[in-house]
Amino acid sequence: MNVHSEMAELLDGRQKFFTLPQRLYNDPAFFAIEIDGIFKRRWLFAGVVAQIPKPGDFFTVPVGPSSILVVRDRSGEIRAFHNTCRHRGSTLCEAEQGRVSSIVCPYHLWTYDLTGKLRSAKGMHDDFDRSEYSLLPVHIETAGSTIYVCLADDPPDFSVFKATLAPYLASHELEKGKLAHIVHVPVAGNWKLVVENSRECFHCPTGHPELARSFITVYRQPYPQSMKGLEALWQRCAAAGMTYGDSGRQDSGYRIERLPLRPGCRSITMDGIPAVTRRLGQVPDGDFGTIAWSYTPTSFNQVVSDYAFHARMLPIGPEQSLLSGYWIVDADAVEGRDYNLANLIKVWDETNLQDRDLIERNQRGVNSAGYRPGPYSQESEMGVVNFVDWYCEMMSKYLGGPERRVLRTA
Predict the structure, then answer these.
(1) What is the pLDDT of residues 94-140, one digit of tens each?
(2) Which residue among 82, 109, 211, 314 is least crowded, i.e. fewest CB within 10 A of its CB?
(3) Residue 385 and residue 375: Cα distance in Å, rounded?
(4) Residue 70 three-state SS
(5) How far is 195 from 104, CA to CA, in rounded Å?
(6) Average confidence score pLDDT of the chain
(7) How far apart are CA 209 and CA 195, in angstroms?
(8) Is the distance from CB of 306 to CB of 313 less than 8 angstroms?
């Protein structure tokens, strides 16, 4: 039996409402199939527009064994390319972020302009045609302040998600914001454990005491309708002309919702008080909760009145992931005058580090001889159940199985 058949067999035999079989969390061969079956086909959250405000600004994105280069060209357009020289395949930019006037391969000095066109290839033969060796482009889209890339030749439709998200973010004007802080946290855990952790707050009351000060961490089904203060929040939003409610499609892998914070809190901070005195965009004064959205499998986001926090989750290896955090504030907000950086980042910075420790402990346990798939709570972990179902369906389709495999329920 080949590795594709072995993976399909595990997917066929897994129990719904249970964690996945062990090999799906640590097998290098299965990880390689997931890169092809999911990460080379899905739109992936790459970074934020505010990372590259000027022409020549760039950042790189690791996706498994691949690297993507995102750059702003001289006309202001944001472009994405495979971070690979067309000469002999050397990586072009090793830095995570920087600024260049042109893209130069350090190996043999092939030089590309910011649109990806090859401009110089010294020492090549007389009939060498530079026009045939531009950088290979990668599909790119923006949504609010976020940038998404897709490695597929024919990417899935992005327009429905983008159009659904836009009215939620209209007042916040994130595309005009600036990047206040960025952090990268390597995690010794499989990417699915990282996503699972982000899709529930069952662990939050004990795992994230800082977050629990302002964020509602205990809720019941039906979600989010059971959350205290939700109806009053939606009434305030309606009166202010702001979009509210929840939207999402499991088959498309995204969810968008406006949620209440704890009583008396107007931001996700240590004391519930906004960390930035300048509100984002045109957000009116008052309590408008948080806009929470996720796009599977690489992002979750929280947008409050004074800042946005974007979390990026990328696969690096079978048991290695990269968790990144981005804080966006109003473009005119000045550190030291309008906000204290330590106060701004405290909650999510602590949450990232706590999540790293929880995921790494989870990975060690999953790797042990005593691991057996365990039951998810159908009261508090339905977001995880939905993700795992989405993952199994995506992989099943890629492996050539039926569109929806019949799962054992007991």
Answers:
(1) 999 999 999 999 999 999 999 999 999 999 999 999 999 999 999 99
(2) 109
(3) 10
(4) strand
(5) 36
(6) 94
(7) 20
(8) no
d(CA 92, CA 85): 6
Q: Are 309 and 329 in contact (CB under 8 A)?
A: no
Residue with tokens 């999911």: 38
Distance CA 214, CA 222 (A): 21
pLDDT digits (tens, 9 = 90+) for 16-69: 999 999 999 999 999 999 999 999 999 999 999 999 999 999 999 999 999 999
* 72-90: b (≥16 Cβ within 10 Å) or e: beeeeebbbbbbbbbeeee
Spatial strand order in the sheet of 308-317: 178-187, 320-329, 308-317, 299-303, 290-295, 254-259, 246-249
pLDDT digits (tens, 9 = 90+) for 307-336: 999 999 999 999 999 999 999 999 999 999
Contact (Cβ atoms closer than 8 angstroms) between residue 191 and residue 315: yes
The pLDDT score that the predictor gives to residue 217 is 86
Burial of 392 by CB count in 10 Å (0-12 exposed, 13-18 middle, 19+ buried)? buried
**Residue 13 backbone zone (phi > 0: left; psi -120 to 50: alpha; other: beta):** alpha
Q: In what order do the strands lie in the sheet with 146-150?
A: 43-48, 146-150, 139-143
Q: Mind giving me the DSSP string for 162-182?
A: HHHHHHHHGGG-GGG-EEEEE
User: Residue range 239-267: average pLDDT?
Assistant: 90
